């Protein structure tokens, strides 16, 4: 195995085990995770034809997230009694594989494995990403698909034929189906697929890429079209987004550019810079973007993949009239790190290039403990392991219960009966007894309802 291949395997293993460490005891089991896993437990023919409802109204444009989580449940679930943290293992594996492939693509494109490794290590250990990457939630899956599409394009898969372009387009479009915030990366990838052969005046390749994109989009949107035909009164997908754009076009509102710029800068600091608080990284990012724009001015693929999605995110969220949350930017933020890598990289064949790679890997490795320390404080449910232990004991009795409660407080959207039902237990309001799970995982039974 080559050095790049060995480094990719190492990176995958490090990323995967970092992300899943302890999830069997602190898995973040809130309403969104219960909703996603309940759907994943269904037979395939009962899966929704569109994505889940968003907190700003409407729903995503396709079922990719539900189908991916269903596949994870089928492949990984039996190893964990189909409990929801099985989804965390599968989700972490997908994202870690995407990171490893992104490293391979960067190492090849930059001709600098050291800079590539340092950049992806920064992406992998971002505290916010680590905390979210194994909790059964759509933004991390969308980020993984976006990284796969970017990596495959950097590896020139689209130049190999129509199938390569189709695979890339499928990854990119599925990322948008999974999470609306991935649309900017999707647009950048699809632009690269067409612009790359266009700038080289390879007209057959342009036609091939255009046809491949059109066919992939049509096929992937068939479930949505079927849903709309079956449910004509269901309302529009992404209603809050289209409503805001309609108000701007009608003159009732103006684009909120300053809010969008501040949102992008805040997301970059929170996702890629925390736990440090300083405006300098944002200034450095702008400088690096300028360097990349000049250095790769004749490389339409790099500009489309790295810079265009960030510009589109700023422009796009200026047209969104609601409040901006950091996770909206999760699929875009790895490209900010790539911007710095493309700006800084020197060929590893030179002495300065080798020294730069070693220095950057060392710097990236040095900050890992602080970043993982912060990640360990975010999005954790310490009572999850206790719920699993208690639910296993209750399910082992193979008797229906009237209700299950806990002697400790859970988040409002956490259902203490969910794991018991997943394990095959049955809640019957006419059953003679209820159960109470204690803080040590033991269970007491009472002949009463709560």
Characterization of the model:
By secondary structure, the chain is mostly helical. It has two domains: 3-246 and 345-375, no CATH class; 384-446, no CATH class. Helix content is 64%, strand content 2%. The chain is built from 20 helices and three strands. Helix 20 (418-422) links the parallel strand 1 (404-406) and strand 2 (434-437). The model has no long low-confidence stretch (mean pLDDT 93).
Percent of residues in helices? 55-70%
Radius of gyration: 23 Å
Helix-strand string: HHHHHHHHHHHHHHHHHHHEHEE
| Structural class designation | mainly alpha
Q: How much β-strand is present in the residues? A: under 5%
Gross geometry: globular
Poorly predicted regions are: none
User: Major sheet, described briefly?
Assistant: 3 strands, mixed
The total count of helices amounts to: 20
Mean pLDDT: 93
Output the strand order for the largest sheet.
1-2-3
**Can you tell me the number of structural domains?**
2
Q: Care to count the β-strands? A: 3
Distance from first to last alpha carbon: 60 Å
């Amino acid at each position: 195995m080559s050095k790049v291949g060995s480094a990719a395997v190492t990176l995958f293993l490090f990323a995967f085990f970092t992300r899943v460490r302890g999830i069997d005891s602190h898995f973040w089991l809130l309403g969104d995770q219960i909703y996603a896993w309940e759907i994943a437990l269904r037979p395939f023919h009962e899966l929704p034809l569109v994505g889940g409802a968003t907190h700003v109204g409407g729903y995503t444009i396709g079922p990719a997230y539900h189908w991916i989580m269903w596949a994870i449940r089928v492949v990984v679930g039996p190893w964990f009694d189909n409990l929801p943290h099985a989804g965390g293992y599968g989700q972490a594996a997908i994202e870690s594989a995407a990171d490893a492939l992104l490293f391979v693509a960067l190492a090849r494109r930059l001709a600098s494995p050291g800079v590539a490794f340092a950049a992806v290590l920064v992406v992998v250990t971002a505290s916010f990403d680590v905390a979210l990457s194994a909790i059964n939630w759509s933004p991390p899956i969308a980020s993984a698909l976006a990284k796969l599409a970017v990596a495959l394009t950097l590896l020139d898969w689209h130049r190999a034929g129509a199938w390569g372009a189709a695979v890339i387009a499928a990854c990119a479009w599925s990322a948008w189906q999974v999470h609306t915030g991935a649309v900017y990366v999707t647009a950048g990838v699809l632009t690269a697929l067409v612009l790359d052969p266009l700038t080289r005046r390879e007209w057959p390749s342009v036609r091939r890429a255009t046809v491949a994109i059109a066919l992939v989009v049509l096929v992937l949107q068939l479930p949505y079209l079927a849903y709309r035909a079956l449910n004509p009164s269901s309302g529009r997908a992404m209603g809050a987004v289209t409503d805001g754009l309609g108000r701007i076009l009608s003159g009732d509102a103006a684009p909120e550019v300053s809010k969008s710029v501040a949102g992008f800068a805040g997301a970059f600091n929170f996702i890629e810079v925390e736990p440090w608080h300083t405006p300098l990284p944002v200034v450095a990012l702008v400088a690096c973007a300028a360097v990349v724009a000049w250095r790769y001015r004749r490389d339409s693929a790099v500009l489309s993949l790295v810079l265009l999605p960030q510009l589109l995110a700023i422009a796009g969220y200026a047209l969104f009239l609601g409040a901006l949350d950091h996770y909206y930017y999760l699929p875009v933020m790895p490209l900010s790190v790539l911007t710095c890598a493309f700006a800084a990289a020197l060929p590893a064949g030179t002495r300065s290039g080798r020294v730069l790679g070693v220095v950057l890997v060392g710097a990236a490795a040095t900050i890992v403990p602080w970043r993982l320390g912060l990640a360990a404080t975010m999005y954790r449910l310490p009572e999850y392991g206790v719920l699993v232990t208690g639910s296993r004991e209750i399910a082992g009795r193979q008797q229906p219960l009237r209700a299950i409660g806990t002697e400790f407080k859970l988040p409002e959207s956490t259902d203490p009966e969910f794991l018991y039902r997943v394990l095959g237990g049955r809640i019957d309001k006419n059953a003679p007894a209820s159960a109470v799970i204690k803080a040590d995982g033991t269970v007491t039974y009472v002949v009463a309802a709560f």
